[in-house]
Structures are given as structure tokens and as C-alpha cells.
Amino acid sequence: MDSRTLRNLMRIVQTGSLSAAAEQSCLTVQALAAQLNKVEEQFGFRLFRRSNKGLTLTSQGSELTPFMDQVLAATRQLEEKVTALKTPRQRSLKVALNTTLPGEFNRRMIDRLIAVFPHYQLEFSYAESMENLSKLKNEDFDLAILIGQQSGFSSISMPDVQVRVVGAHCGDEDDSLGLLGDKFQVRPAQECPYSHSFLRFLDAGLGEYGPSQRMVYSCSETLTLSLITQLDGLGLVSRDAALRNGLAIFPDFEDFLEVRLAVNNPELSDQALHDVVDLTLQERAERDIRRRPHRYAEKQVAAEIRT
User: Fold this and answer.
1) Which residues of the chain, if any, have pLDDT below 50?
2) What is the dihedral of CA 23, 28, 33, 39, to 10 degrees?
3) What would the CATH number be for the domain defined by 3-86?
4) Cβ atoms 162, 256 nearer than 8 A
5) The predicted structure's pLDDT at residue 2
6) Within a 10 A sphere around the Cβ of 122, how many other Cβ atoms?
7) Which of 58, 149, 264, 266 has the most CB atoms lying inside 10 A of its own CB?
8) Distance CA 113, CA 120 (A)
9) What was the pLDDT predicted at 183?
């Protein structure tokens, strides 16, 4: 007895009528009656009593009804599972973009990720490097754009993409570091990607300061920009951020930090990841800039998976 016949028998149970059950089953009354007779012959007893008022279950039929329901429920589950297995499941991919980088870079990264991972449901977020690093560690993000070297995750260098870090303040651009020495220092926290750049900035002329030096620490470029303005301070931010916020840029210092695609999903193939970064998203601005004192560039490396 197949599941279709079993469903037809349950329609008879529910309606108590051969004609009504036949209509629901898209069968003639004669065809449905033949199915019922065949099943009863196989079982060796009647499932229904026939009368002018319709069909009612016999005692044996009543005892079998719960089992028929269970078989039909299991059949439906099996059919749903088969259908689900036939349809490829769309996997999700969580990607943390970086607010420090230009909007055009992030837009092109989104286009690139969509092209490289067409069978994934992509979920994007938008934050600074420190928050992106936290998302990799604590929120199961698969990919994140980070600035500078970060330990703990495999990563690929983004060719020809760097963040240009400058000293910014609220004074005049021709103010010397000596004049700026008394300003409130907004220093990057140790885990911030700009922390090593700030040490280089000190080497460029600020010198060493004792405990009396006024300073605060920040892990966020957004917070640093706010503190520079509120405290009439001096700090490191990206050149684009300094220009957007109308800050003066100290002319004798620049640092360039590499941008990396951090990976937290071993199922993503090396080829796919290299396809993501194998695109010049913007020309490196420093190519045509003359070298000046105290301009540094972190060593550029070829795109590779690193641990």
C-alpha cells in the first residue's frame, strides 16, 4: 500500500463518505471503492461499515487510524527532507568592512565579494579595525578588513591599498612640533593600529615626555577626532579623516599602514580569497610623492595567506 492510497483512506475517515473522499482525491467513486476493497482484502478484515448514512470505522479500523496518521506524518517529513536536499542550501558569509577606508573602496569590495561568492548570503557590517577584530573573535564573522598587522588570524595583504596616517591638530599647518608640544596628546591605545605610528611621530620631533604630559588614550579614530577638537589636542588620524574634519596636518610626518583582509573561515578557498583582493581598488597615492624626512612605509608583502 503506497502513501497515496493511505491518504485516500484517511479522507474516507475524515468525511465518512466515498463520494466526498473521491472528490478530494480527484478519483471516481468506483476507483476509490476499488482501492478500499483491495486494502481490506490485504488486511483480512473490514475497515469501514457501509450503510445508507455513509461509512464508519470498525473497531479494527479505529485501532489502525493512529498508525495511519503516524505513517502519513513520517511520509510528509521524508518528502520535505528530500525536497530540501535537492535544493542547495545558501550559506551565509559575514563580512566586516572598515570605516577608515574611503566609501569607494568599500563599495568596490562589496561588488567583488558578491562576484566571488555568488552562492553565499552576504551580511555586511561597517566599523573601525578594533571593532572588526572583536567581531572576528566574538561574533563569528568570516572576513574583516583590518589596518596594519594583527595577530591571531590568517590574513591577505590588499595590494596597492594603504592608510595614510598623519599628525592632526586644530592649529595652523605651519606650526612646528615644538609649538605643538604643549597640546593635549590623544595617543592611540597599544592595541590600536596607529600605536606604532605614534611612536614614530614622537621620534619626528615631539621628544620624550614625563608623567606631567597631558594625554589620553583612544582606540577609535572617531573618538580621536572628537578629542582633538574638544581638547585642542594633537593626535594621529588618517589623512582623509583629517581633511574631512577641517584639521591642520603637521607637514613633516606621514606613515603608511597596509590594509589586510583577515580570514576566520577555513572553508573559504585560497583561490577565492585571492580573487577578492586581486583587484586594484585605488591607486596608491604615495607612488608619485617625493620622499620627505620622517615619512615611513610599512614593508609591502605579496598577497598570501598568513597565520
Assistant:
1) 207, 280-307
2) -80
3) 1.10.10.10
4) yes
5) 84
6) 15
7) 264
8) 10
9) 78
Answer yes or no: same fold for 3-86 and 91-160+259-297: no
Q: Which residues pair with 153 in a beta bridge?
A: none
Residue carrying C-alpha cell 464508519:
56
C-alpha cell at position 205: 620631533
Considering the domain 91-160+259-297 in this protein, what is its CATH number? 3.40.190.10
Element (H, E) at 125: strand 120-127
**In Å, how far are 18, 113, 177, 185, 203 from 208, measured between CA atoms?**
98, 45, 12, 12, 8
Contact 143, 116 (CB under 8 A): no
Q: For the chain, what are the domain ranges?
A: 3-86, 91-160+259-297, 165-255
Question: What CA–CA distance (Å, rounded) separates 280 from 37?
Answer: 75
For residue 112 the three cell numbers come to: 567583488
Judge if pTM exceeds 0.85: no
Q: Is 295 helix (H, G, I), strand (E, B) or coil?
A: strand
- Give the relative orientation of helices 270-277 and 103-116 as an angle to the nearest 10 degrees: 150
Q: How far apart are the C-alpha atoms of 192 and 189, rounded to whole Å?
A: 5
Identify which of 48, 39, 38, 41 has the alpha carbon closest to the alpha carbon of residue 15: 48
> What torsion do the CA atoms of 213, 219, 220, 224 make, to the nearest 10 degrees?
0
C-alpha distances in angstroms, 71 versus 5, 7, 238?
12, 10, 66
Q: Does domain 165-255 have CATH number 3.40.190.10?
A: yes
Q: Are the CB atoms for 27 and 34 separated by under 8 Å?
A: no
**pLDDT tens per residue across span 33-64:** 999 999 999 999 999 999 988 899 999 999 99
